[in-house]
């Protein structure tokens, strides 16, 4: 599909990236001053202080707090999933049903963190075409899915944890990362022969048309990747700090990073999985993870664990006595 015929939808996304709200420096400075006043040895809080000041600056709160955290999981299906060795029929549908029944690992973490949990079904009965041989989405469909992701957080939250679900989504995310940052397919996959071959085939099919990050997203990405990118962008405009989950979520974030390096300043990487590709991707987008969990789930579990760390940081920041109170 030619750029001339489909330029407008992505132009809207580019315009949003050109007007990103900056951090509230006054709020962040006030939080930093409060950290310095606490009856604790200087520098003893480590990243706990950084987290409290991060929330303060992006939420524009001099006394940062999180009272309405949300874990949002975006679920999509993939045409290449049926070809994955050992793949189960309707695996993504069953995952979504599991979350709805409260039986997922992330459900338990959401309960423990007192966080809301929403799962967004992105046309599960209509898998995106197989990226090895065709385009995942048209430009209009990709932009519309990003817009859906933007609207998904409209119900209100003050800290957004993002996750993904979908058989084949990890392969699409690997193809997208390879398109964005180069390298061999095996640098970004889980190491399986099928994943390596699928990414190589997708890159070959779309060769010469992946230099634009948004074009890469629509050609070798997926609905959940597009929706997550949209949610991250909306959170920036609504001054909502974001915790990024696993490789798939970070690949979606990487699209925004490549378009505008400051686009992820309101985001933290909650964790790094055992998968070496996740660590490589975090380095590419300049994010240091809060936790080394070894978790390979993409359902927001790592982000939910990171939420607990953020809440602890805010509790320390808000509840510890100041030196002038001793």
In words, what does this structure look like?
- 50% of the residues lie in helices and 9% in strands.
- The protein is an alpha/beta fold and 326 residues long.
- The N and C termini lie far apart (68 Å).
- The protein has helices spanning 3-17, 25-37, 47-59, 91-100, 105-113, 139-151, 169-181, 193-205, 213-220, 223-237, 247-259, 276-284, 301-319; strands at 69-75, 116-121, 159-165, 242-244, 267-269, 271-272, 291-292.
- The strands form 2 sheets. The chain has a 5-stranded parallel sheet with strand order 2-1-3-4-5, with helices on both faces. A two-stranded parallel sheet has the order 6-7.
- α9 runs antiparallel to α11 and α11 runs parallel beside α12 (276-284).
- Mean pLDDT is 95; it is low at 1-6.
Strand numbers in spatial order across the main sheet: 2-1-3-4-5
Largest β-sheet summary:
5 strands, parallel
End-to-end separation: 68 Å
Count of individual beta strands: 7
> H/E element string?
HHHEHHEHEHHHHEHEEHEH
Helix content range: 40-55%
Mean pLDDT: 95
Structural class designation = alpha/beta
Which value, in Å, is the CA radius of gyration? 20 Å
Q: How big a fraction of the residues is strand? A: 5-15%
**What is the count of DSSP helices, taking H or I runs of 4+ residues?**
13
Tell me the overall shape: globular
- The poorly predicted ranges are 1-6
In short:
The protein is α/β, with parallel strands linked by helices and 326 residues long. Helices cover 50% and strands 9% of the residues.
Topology, pairings included?
Layout (H helix, E strand, L loop, with lengths): L2 H15 L7 H13 L9 H13 L9 E7 L15 H10 L4 H9 L2 E6 L17 H13 L7 E7 L3 H13 L11 H13 L7 H8 L2 H15 L4 E3 L2 H13 L7 E3 L1 E2 L3 H9 L6 E2 L8 H19 L7
Helix pairs in contact: 1-6, 2-3, 3-13, 5-13, 6-10, 7-8, 7-9, 7-11, 9-11, 10-11, 11-12
